[in-house]
Design a protein that fits this description.
67 residues, mainly alpha, 3 helices
Length: 67
Amino acid sequence: MYICMCNAVTDHAIRRAAAEGVQSFAELQARTGCSDCCGACEPEARQCLREAVDAARSALAFIPSPA
């Protein structure tokens, strides 16, 4: 689903960015251009990023640390 229509940023792109280490909205904007035009998508983009970062952290919690 498109989150940012101005720059064609999808929820998938936001989740992928979070999986690649993006944690802040400023990083997301720099990486994708999301919400740097009209700003109408900012609340939804922030929510999507927050959920993706939380999911990425949860996934990392299940990875065993090296002995």
